[in-house]
Design goal:
Layout (H helix, E strand, L loop, with lengths): L1 H10 L1 H9 L3 H12 L1 H14 L2
Amino acid sequence: MDIIRIIAAIFLPPLGVFLQVGLGKHFWINILLTFLGYIPGIIHAIWIIAKVK
């Protein structure tokens, strides 16, 4: 299941975070980072997916 989340995080970072943690603070932080720059959103999403188990 993590592979699906990582693929989702590469194409749409907030979706990957949402699949991992739901509509929590990390989701909103990721939306902000994605709007500020696509790459920071991807990095944050992959970090959240790898960190939160």
